[in-house]
Amino acid sequence: MIYRHDLAVFPRPTDTPGISWIDVSRIRQALGRHVTADVADLLDVAVAVYSADRSCQRDFRGSSTGRRSIAVELPLRNPDRWKAPGVMECLQEYLHWLSGDEWALGFSKSLSIPSEAESQPSLFTMRPGEPNYVALFSGGLDSLAGFACTAINAPSASHVLVSAYTNTRLLERQRKQIRQIRSELERRTHGAGASIWHVAVGFGLNRPDRRATEKSQRTRALVFLALGVAAAIQVESDTLRVYENGLGALNLPLNETQLGVDNYRGVHPRSLMLLEALLPKVLGAPVLLKNPFLFRTKAEMCRALPAAGLAGLIGDTVSSTASRFGFQVNRLSADFAPLAFSVDMRSVPQDQAYSIATALTGGTSGTTIWRSPRVSNTASLRC
Amino acid sequence: MPELDRFEKSFRRGWIRPYRLARSETASDHETSDAIITALCQSLRDFGGEPGFEEMAKILDSRGNRPAWTQFAAIEETLKMYGGHRHTEIAAHAARSILVQQAAGSGPRSDQSLVEEFATRTCHSLLEHYFFADARSKLIAQGVHIDHVAAREWQSGAEDLLSSRIEQIAKQLINDPRATALRAPKRTAPRRSTEDLLDDNLLSEEQEPAGVLLQVGTP
Q: Which residues does chain B have within 8 Å of residue A377's beta carbon, measured at their own beta carbons?
C-alpha cells in the first residue's frame, strides 16, 4: 500500500499553518537575516516528510517490520534544484536509512508569494562574533554536556544553540537552561566570556480531528538538522555540531528482538553522512554535520559539566521523548553525579544495561517499554 | 540518541509455549527444545519461509567474483525488494555476518557448504529474535535464572540440544525457501500421556497467584 500526500493543495509549512507548520520567522528574529529560498525549501521538505511520516501508521503485525511506501507531492520555490540528477537518489537513500520506508517525492513550482521571513530584510543585522559554533540544543543531558565541553575549550567563542520544540513546556525548559548557562558563564568570566545565541523554533502538525499519529517519528531528526543547517547558513558557518555520545549516536539494538528502524538513527554517523552529501546539492554550498563526541561515552562528556560550573543543571535536563520520566531519571543522576561520572559506560555489559532499564521502569515480564533505552543510558551511569 | 525505540512487548504467536516450558520446573529440557523447534517451523510456515533467501545465497556464493562492498549493496537491494519482511531482515543480518567473517579470513565449517552455513545461521538468528533474546530477560525477571551468565548457560545448553534439528530445518529451507512443506523434525521427548498430565500439581509455579492466596488465608 502506498500512502500519498499531496501537499500542493495546502499552504507550505513555512508559510501559514496548513497540515504542518514551522515558525521560520524565529530564525530571522534571532539572527537578524531573512531566510533564503533554498533554506526555506529545505525546511519545507523536512517538515513535509515529517508530516507524511507521522500521518501513516506502521503495521507490525505478522511478518512486517513496519515498512511503508510513502509518496509526497510538494510545491517548492526552486524545484529544479531538487529535481536535478542525483538529488532524488541521495534524498531517498537518506530517508530510507532514517525511516526504513520507501519514499517517492515529487516537486512542483510553488506559486505562493514569499513569506515575511524570506522577503523582509531585518532592520538590524546581528551576527555572532568569530569563532562561532552552531549546535543543536535539545535540552537533553548530551547537548548540555556537549556545550560544556565546547565552552571549556573555546571560552571566548560565540555559540549559536538551535532548539526545536513541539510544545511550550519543552521550550520553557530549554530557555531556563540557556538563562542559567548565560549567567554562569558571565559569572565565571566577569562578562567577557562566550556569547550565547539561542534560536528556538516551533514546529508541528495540525490535527483538528485528533487523529492518531505514528509514534516512531523517525524523520523528526531531519527537521532538527534542517533547522540547524538553516541557522548555520544564516551565520555563515560551514559546520553544524550535534552533541551526542557515541553509544547514543550509534544506538545499537539492545537485543535481537529489535530489527531495522526499531532503533532511532537520527544522529547515527551514517545519517549525518548521507544528509551531508545531500546538502550541497540543494543549498549550493556544503555544510558539515559534525558530532565531536562520537568516540566518547556519556559519562566522559558529563565530566565537563562540573568543570564548566553547569553540574547543577543536570536535574533540569529532559529526555527528548519520555520527558516526564527522563526528567526524573536525570534528576536522580544529578544526585549521584559525583559517583556517577567516575564510571565508564563501556564497562556495563549490554545485557545488564537492559536489566537495569527493565528494573528501573518497574517492568517484569512483558512490560519492557518504549522508554527503556533512554533510561538505560542514564541508569548505567549509576552502576 | 535512543528515541522512541521499539521493543516487542510479548512473544509472537506460537512462542509462548516454549517460554512456559522453559519457566516450568516440571518440563524437561528435551520437552522445551521440542516446543522451540515446533514454534520455529510454525513461524517459518506462517510467514512464508525466508523471502530473499535464494538471492542472498547466490550473493554469498559469488564471493570470489566480486568485491565485498558490492555484496553488501546487493544484500541491501534484496532487502528493499522484499519490502520489510521480518525474516528477510534476519537473513540479511546472517548474510552480512558471514561476509564479515569471510573478510576476516574464516570460512564455513569443514563439513558444511556456505549456503548450509547461511541457512543454519539464519535459523539460529530466528530463534534469537523470536525467543531467546526476550526469554533470557524474562526468565531472570521471573527468578528462574539468577543473572545473565546463568541465562546464557541455559541458552547454550538448549542450543546444543537443538543443533542437529536446526541443521535438518536448514537443509529443508535450502530446498524449499518458502517453507510450504516444512515439517518439524521428530520429537526427542515422548509426548506426555493424559494420565500423566492429570497428575500435575495444579499449584505449581504457573498457579502462583492461587498459591499466594492460600498462604495468606492460612492462619
A: 2
